[in-house]
């Protein structure tokens, strides 16, 4: 409705005002609800009616740090950090190897890395459940009982997010000029030194982008722990998805506020780092 | 001098191969399990198509496929429209483009589960019923961020002189939009349409939080089936979803490369024309 009205109103005018269609949508559908649930984090559920009363309490934040939820909080944060670390350890060599390929081989491998991301996330995690199950291929070959334990969740997270790390890292690495490396080689720098002093520092913005992406996605994850962790490896995302909007709204609000402030902090650090790096290279 | 280079290269290549193997192992397992007559799918027992027949005859699954397709098409079409309109409207102003980018980044940088939980918490207060409509609106509001970034990037790279030239030659603003601006954005619009289609079809968080009792989508069907008890037909459903995903990816690539070569040709023609024109001007 809004769209049609504005269009007919500005038939011969500039299109500028139409930009607000998306803005309204973002504010109404995304920002207002997020603000709402954060406000609710300072409330308390009435024990009988279950209505949330806004009493200005920090109970929900205290609950998040209590014995009931502290393990979940610690597990979420440490799994997320482990995922970022593993994605970096695996993803940087991957991106390096990709950036050294040329022509059709490179295109083919690139497609091979991206393609699984177009296949339903849930289905991929379900397939891992089958691979890791007791009596399944991995257990019968290695004897490792991984399913419904933290290593399975970590494995699922890594396979889900490594392509998202590799892509920006690859783009950054492939932009590092070959002339620079030739120059370094001519001046006697060995391969390891070239990598350490030239290639990786120049590609760092892309690597940091990849790491930030993985951090944001992994901390909100709820599908991987639900499918590969059973009900034994609960993360913050599971609490949000199962109870955050309903009777545990204050807790949901507290988790939201915590996650968003963490991202804000990480985002600001990344921005500061980028500015710093840009200044140093300039 | 050569040796360490080779060795390092080999380590990185091995890791890359390992990652590709890890990415495809579960898909291979799924494909094998879907035709394995052993219902627990742990050991191979023989070939069967029973699970595909089961999946095909599953009424709940059929309904889920219908909901998923309807949702994905609506979400994709509307979010592409909203995002494209926003990107086109903002193309002349640095300030508007900046706001668009910030709002898009905020959405993409927020875990979907946070947006989903936020909307689910506010709906009862506003007395809005859960169901298909809030699901679709949430998909649109979230996915238009991707459209905004993809189409916005293309619009920012467009040649503004082309538009000015058309205006100078007497074309009205709408005609310029239709004949100059939109054709140039076509590859970006098509890529974002396919991307939003794939994202919407794959979403669990938004749909799970906002659906009504009858609005089960395919990923939600799989997600809840997996959590309850795995029936062997889920493998067959998974393979079907896999084929849809791969097809969409290939379609996106084909369209992209076709448009890219088209683009090249157009650019070449343009430079040729420019070259020809510039000859007589030279002293």
Task: Walk me through this protein's architecture.
- The complex is a heterodimer of chains A (282) and B (283).
- Chain A has 13 helices and two strands; from the N terminus they run ααββααααααααααα.
- With 282 residues, chain A is an all-alpha fold.
- Chain B is globular, with a radius of gyration of 25 Å.
- The termini of chain B are far apart.
- In chain B, 41% of the residues are buried.
- Classes of the chains: A mainly alpha (282), B mainly alpha (283).
Keywords:
heterodimer, A: 282 residues, mainly alpha, two-stranded antiparallel ribbon, 13 helices, 2 strands, disordered N terminus, B: 283 residues, MetI-like fold, 11 helices, globular, disordered C terminus
Offer a concise description of the structure.
Helix content of chain A is 74%, strand content 2%. Chain A has helices at residues 2-9, 20-40, 59-65, 70-100, 103-114, 121-132, 137-142, 150-175, 178-186, 191-219, 223-228, 236-244, 249-281; strands spanning 43-45, 52-54.
Task: Kindly report how far apart the N and C termini of chain A lie.
Answer: 50 Å
- Briefly note the structural class of the backbone of chain B: mainly alpha
Dominant shape of chain A: globular
Task: Provide the CATH top-level class of the domain at 54-157 and 185-258 in chain B.
Answer: Mainly Alpha
> Main β-sheet of chain A: number of strands, strand sense, barrel status?
2 strands, antiparallel
- Tell me the helix content of chain B: over 70%
Low-confidence stretches of chain B: 1-5, 275-283
> So how many helices of chain A?
13
CATH superfamily of the domain at 54-157 and 185-258 in chain B: MetI-like
Largest sheet of chain B: none
Q: What percentage of amino acids of chain B are in beta strands?
A: under 5%
């Amino acid at each position: 409705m809004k769209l049609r009205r504005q269009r007919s109103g500005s038939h011969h005018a500039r299109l500028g005002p139409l930009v607000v269609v998306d803005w309204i949508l973002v504010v109404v559908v995304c920002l207002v609800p997020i603000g709402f649930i954060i406000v609710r984090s300072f409330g308390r559920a009435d024990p009988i009616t279950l209505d949330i009363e806004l009493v200005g309490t920090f109970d929900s934040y205290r609950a998040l740090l209590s014995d009931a939820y502290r393990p979940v909080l610690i597990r979420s944060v440490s799994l997320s950090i482990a995922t970022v670390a593993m994605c970096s350890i695996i993803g940087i060599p991957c991106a390096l190897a990709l950036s050294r390929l040329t022509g059709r081989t490179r295109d083919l491998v690139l497609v091979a890395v991206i393609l699984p991301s177009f296949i339903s996330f849930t289905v991929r995690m379900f397939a891992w459940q089958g691979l890791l199950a007791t009596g399944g291929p991995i257990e019968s070959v290695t004897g490792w009982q991984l399913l419904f334990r933290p290593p399975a969740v970590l494995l699922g997270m890594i396979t889900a997010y490594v392509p998202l790390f590799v892509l920006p890292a690859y783009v950054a690495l492939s932009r590092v000029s070959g002339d620079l490396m030739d120059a370094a080689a001519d001046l006697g720098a060995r391969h390891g030194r070239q990598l350490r002093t030239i290639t990786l520092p120049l590609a760092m913005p892309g690597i940091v982008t990849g790491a930030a992406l993985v951090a944001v996605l992994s901390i909100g994850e709820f599908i991987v722990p639900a499918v590969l962790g059973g009900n034994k490896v609960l993360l913050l995302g599971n609490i949000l998805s199962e109870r955050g909007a309903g009777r545990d709204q204050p807790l949901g609000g507290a988790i939201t506020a915590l996650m968003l402030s963490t991202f804000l902090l990480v985002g600001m650090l990344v921005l500061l780092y980028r500015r710093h790096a840009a200044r140093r290279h300039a | 001098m050569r040796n360490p280079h080779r060795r390092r290269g080999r380590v990185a290549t091995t890791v890359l191969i390992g990652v590709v193997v890890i990415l495809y192992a579960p898909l291979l397992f799924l494909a094998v399990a879907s035709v394995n007559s052993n219902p627990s799918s742990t050991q191979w027992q023989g070939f069967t198509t029973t699970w595909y027949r089961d999946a095909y005859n599953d009424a709940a699954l059929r309904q889920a496929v219908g909901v998923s397709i309807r949702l994905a098409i609506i979400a994709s079409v509307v979010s592409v429209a909203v995002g494209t309109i926003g990107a086109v409207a903002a193309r002349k102003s640095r300030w508007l483009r900046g706001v668009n980018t910030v709002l898009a980044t905020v959405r993409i940088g927020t875990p979907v589960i946070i947006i989903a939980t936020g909307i689910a918490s506010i709906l009862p207060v506003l007395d809005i019923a859960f169901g298909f409509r809030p699901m679709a609106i949430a998909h649109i509001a979230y996915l238009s961020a991707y459209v905004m970034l993809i189409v916005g990037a293309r619009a920012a790279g467009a040649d503004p002189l082309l538009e000015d030239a058309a205006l100078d030659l007497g074309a009205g603003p709408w005609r310029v939009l239709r004949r100059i601006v939109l054709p140039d954005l076509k590859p970006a619009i098509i890529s974002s349409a396919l991307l939003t289609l794939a994202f919407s079809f794959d979403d669990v968080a938004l749909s799970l939080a906002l659906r009504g009792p009858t609005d089960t989508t395919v990923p939600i069907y799989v997600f809840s089936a997996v959590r309850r008890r795995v029936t062997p037909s889920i493998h067959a459903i998974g393979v079907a979803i896999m084929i849809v995903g791969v097809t969409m990816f290939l379609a996106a690539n084909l369209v992209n490369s076709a448009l890219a070569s088209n683009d090249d040709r157009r650019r070449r023609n343009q430079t040729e024309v420019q070259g020809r024109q510039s000859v007589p001007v030279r002293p």
